Amino acid sequence: MLLRDTPHRRRNALTGEWVLVSPHREKRPWRGQVEATPPAGNVRYDPGCYLCPGNARAAGVRNPSYASTYVFENDFPALLPDAAEEELNDDGLLVAASERGVCRVVCFSPDHSLTLSRMSESAIRIVVDTWADQYRELMSRPEIRCVQIFENRGEMMGASNPHPHGQIWACEHLPDEWSKEQAAQEAYPRGCLLCDYLAIELQRGERLVCRNADWVALVPFWAVWPFETLVLPVRHTTELPDLSPGGRDSLASLLRRLTAGYDALFDAPFPYSMGFHQQPGERTHLHAHFYPPLLRSATVRKFMVGFEMLGGPQRDLTPENAAARLRAVTR
Predict the structure, then answer these.
(1) Which residues contact 56 (CB under 8 A, 6 or more apart)?
(2) What is the number of domains present in the chain?
(3) Other C-beta atoms within 10 Å of 253: how many?
(4) 157 lies in some domain
(5) Active-site residue (options: 163, 165, 277, 289)
(6) What pTM was estimated for this model as a whole?
(7) Residues 99-148 pLDDT 10s
(8) Which long-range contacts (CB under 8 A, 24 or more apart) does 24-28 make?
(9) What is the CATH number of the domain that holds 324?
(10) Which of 20, 118, 222, 266 is positioned for an S-S bond with 298, CB 3.0–4.6 A?
(11) Domain that holds residue 256
(12) Residue 34 maps to a domain
């Protein structure tokens, strides 16, 4: 493509926002902060872990001796289902309103040492089914408009426990990132925005990381984080419960391949935040975002500071180069 070596801006078709790309700075020296190498887990059961089977959690509740996935109400939730309805509006400048919701934790496996990258496809398929079931149940509640399924992996991304787990936050209103993507997809004039975008990516191939019959992982054209990826179903699908059994199998397979590829890139457990965006409606397309912070190695991360906080995001490594490096280690 053009602009391989020239500073340029790229527009995010899902949000309307821009990212500054500076490929000529990719080899600049680094004398900034260096992180500790993340340890690889090797203990299948930790008596001090509040997510392991049979252990007491921080709030005193004891986990059952679960053998597969395990879902429970977050002991320290960010949202409450019975929050009092209150509003504040002072001349349109001081505006606030109560927010009801539900927060849950999903333990992916009873094995403390595992991650998605090291789990079997059959075990990840159970996680996919759990996500779909949780989404369906929470979206059936009249007060819920958004069910955010996500995982923070690694201390660098704020994970408070290394046990393989994710979270689900069900909200009364659409969060800002969802609202921006929803508006872009509904305003797109030619059908499905992400279907058309994926067709371009499949034709070009330069940003693809891995794929199978039903799913594709790619570095989006507008990626902000160095090794950010977007995971999309090949056929138009709006929500996880709509996936066929084969589509769920394929998602489990692709998630294992992609996360194992991340680990292989720097030969170390790769931190990230990932999550699904899905919403009822013919114009919306189910997808997942992976936002990993690592930049040059397992110990050098990308910081969003200075211009990025005051102006807008910037990257040196092009999405095309990032995809090529991930593709080379993803099997």
Answers:
(1) 50, 62, 63
(2) 2
(3) 18
(4) yes
(5) 165
(6) 0.95
(7) 999 999 999 999 999 999 999 999 999 999 999 999 999 999 999 999 99
(8) 25/316, 26/316, 26/317, 26/318, 26/321, 28/316
(9) 3.30.428.10
(10) 266
(11) 187-331
(12) no
